Amino acid sequence: MEQYAIKGGNPLVGDVEIGGAKNAALPILAASTMTDETVYIENMPDVRDINVLLQAMQGIGVMVKRTGRHGAVLNAGNINSLVVEDEGIKKIRASYYLLGAFLGKYKHAEVTLPGGCDIGFRAIDQHIKGFRALGARVVIEHGLIKADAQRLVGSHIYMDVVSVGATINVMMAATMAEGMTIIENAAKEPHVVDLANFLSSMGANIKGAGTDVIRIRGVQKLHGTEYTIIPDQIEAGTFMFAGAVTKGDVTVKNVIPKHLESITAKLLEIGCQVEEADDCIRVVATRTLEHTHVKTLPYPGFPTDMQPQITVALALSKGTSIVTESVFENRFKYVDELTRMGASIKVEGNTAIITGVEKYTGASISAPDLRAGAALVLAALTAEGYSTVDDVRYIQRGYEDFHLKLQALGAQIELVETEKDYQKFKLKTG
Ligand code: EPZ
């Protein structure tokens, strides 16, 4: 079984190129089925969740041709089924984006109930409420969500919670509904805006994406397009924190600094130097980090997907910090693993009370989910001695070449498969 072998202690130094945003690419790929014409996508990350979605799309007749590692040409003109129940797709959250896309274009969709990271109860009531408001009949039967409509008619929809997934799904369906849809209390994440831009480039009429009111005037037909996906905010943030926790000097390149403001603000608060340029950010950490308090919030607040990474940093800071997780209910599962590395953290409900320690010590740990897995790798990179991180498949869902990018910054990390490989790694780095 693959695991990362890590010897901690090296400050990470250098530049790292950030790839395309997974959470923008997933809905964009799904939305590319909303036209019979050809769609060209660039800057697509080569990560598991994307490959699983593409495979499921191929399974129902979408033509997918890779153009290099980060590009694809898609044509959905010959789709032969609107039922998606591919085994692999059950494991990814974004499977449900095919619902909004198919419902919009074909007025019918049947997609397996979504999986994804186990970070708490992940309701879909707002997706269903939105589809129903547009006139669809939605039922859950035999593990599938089925939605269909004679016609979709624009509507005024107030989201009870700010949901990235529901905003995206309803936006896709409304794009091909009759008349005007208004989504209130919409999610404002960069990937919501990226999808809106993508749909607009196909002929959709969407205004207000990036604010909490999105207005969509339905169109009858969408056309082909060429589109480049935005850089990944969370991959960038993870490498910025890798620089901070290892007392390094890391420049993340090909980023949109505006998307990283809440992350930059916290890095400054905990005593890092942060320099911004047009499309890169440099993070330098030279001394022990300071404590702070953080609450995760929808964008432009501090992202829940960066919560484990900042916790790893704060557990090494001077004093007591409080991290409040307000988006998902069960996102502190990794704390047990971090405790085994020497962290002092008490979790009460959705709050972690962190007493900073001087150092972590290497241990055998497991990645419980994607972002927590990446955060535990950061902890291991600063720890004294050796660590192994199991269940790297979670990390591979959303980070392309994670260990190779870290290696290029000077980290001692390798992907190993057997005990013999691990011993070799120890000999090499000992
Ligand atoms: C997206 O998940 C991301 N996934 C998550 O990233 C990210 O953590 C999350 O948004 C928040 O930013 C993808 O883009 C594929 P939500 P999503 O709907 O859409 C509640 C990663 O690591 N809710 O914004 O599932 C829900 O329970 C992943 O890349 C309802 O109550 O998140 C949660 O508490 C992990 N009813 C909150 O809203 C609904 O119908 C936010 O969820 C929908 C959501």
Give the helices and strands, then pairings.
Layout: E1 3-7, E2 13-17, H1 22-31, E3 38-42, H2 48-59, E4 63-66, E5 72-75, E6 83-84, H3 97-106, E7 108-112, H4 125-133, E8 137-141, E9 144-148, E10 156-158, H5 164-175, E11 180-184, H6 190-201, E12 205-207, E13 213-217, E14 225-228, H7 233-245, E15 249-253, H8 261-269, E16 273-276, E17 280-284, E18 293-295, H9 307-314, E19 320-324, H10 335-340, E20 344-348, E21 351-355, E22 364-366, H11 370-382, E23 386-390, H12 392-396, H13 402-408, E24 412-416, H14 419-429
Parallel strand pairs: 2-15, 3-14, 6-7, 10-11, 18-19, 22-23
Antiparallel strand pairs: 1-23, 1-24, 3-5, 4-5, 7-9, 8-9, 11-13, 12-13, 15-17, 16-17, 19-21, 20-21
Helix pairs in contact: 1-2, 1-3, 1-6, 3-5, 4-5, 5-6, 7-9, 7-11, 9-11
The structure holds ligand EPZ.
Ligand EPZ binds at residues 23, 26, 93-94, 117, 121-127, 161, 163-166, 187, 304-305, 327-328, 370-371, 398.
